[in-house]
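Re: the multi-chain job from yesterday

Posting the exact lines I submitted so nobody has to dig through the queue logs.
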Amino acid sequence: MHPFDNLSGSDVMNQFYGSPDQVRLQRKLHERVDWTRNTPGACNPGRFLGTDDPDALGWDFIVETLREDGAFGFRMIPIDQCADIQANLGEHGFRIDFWDVFSADAQEIIPCCGPLIDAGLPEGLSLVTKDELADQAVIAAIQSCMDRNGIVPFSGDMLSGRMCPSSMIAIKDRDEAIVATAYGYFLHNQHSSHASNAWGGLVAVDAAQRGKRLGVLVNALMVSSCVKDLEASRVHELVSEANEPSRRMVQRCGLQPDPTVRSGIATRGKDRFTR
Ligand SMILES: CC(C)(COP(=O)(O)OP(=O)(O)OC[C@H]1O[C@@H](n2cnc3c(N)ncnc32)[C@H](O)[C@@H]1OP(=O)(O)O)[C@@H](O)C(=O)NCCC(=O)NCCS
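And the result, structure tokens for all chains:
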């Protein structure tokens, strides 16, 4: 059974976050979440609608959605299709930014991340508990931490686990301020060959805490939780070519570059949608 099958979809927190455009897209994703779960070629990139098989989903639909929404996700696209997709989007007045995919099997993640997790948290820092994730103020603080570190957050429903099974890891300091975050979930549906491959991301460490291996720790906790709690057979993360700390962080957790696929966000703006 796919994990989405267990969810009722009711009793939501929502808590959209960001600019009016970002909130509009999150709201639409909420309205269409069943579509992302049940439609061949569709997926849930977390911030807007998306596809992991553009031909199955249909280009007319993709272009029409892009015209309406201004953003659309392309996930796990075979490398030999990326140039054609870029050209096709260009003909319709859109651009696409790609991220490299790093991934590892469950059997590779656990032995690699175990010792990193055993090293423990630095003095004065502690983990946000599962119960605390039900608190909207805590979710707001997590969203704010992501935002100030250049990561466009997901809605409260997604981060708190109300919309789908997920692994939200957050680290707080003595004053209860959130200083580091990471999040994983299944974005591909049961029609996809990536259905049991969890996505991990939204990794943020506050500037004052950087360079102390907190990124490695929060990321190791997140990818391990994807395997142990969500029962993912594989976990992947997306990193831009220019983000050296992030590339090193994910590789330290055992994820290796996958040269066969790339993931991207199509937009009409001139800036990347997120870091
Ligand atoms: C990416 C990020 C989470 C790393 O957090 P961090 O706590 O500073 O990282 P760590 O101390 O755990 O170090 C992780 C790796 O990056 C390396 N690193 C850290 N800062 C670096 C820098 N400025 N330049 C190059 N490498 C760096 C570390 O040496 C380590 O690599 P190693 O294990 O091979 O030695 C943090 O920089 C951040 O929040 N950036 C902004 C948001 C972001 O880009 N998120 C990732 C989106 S994919």
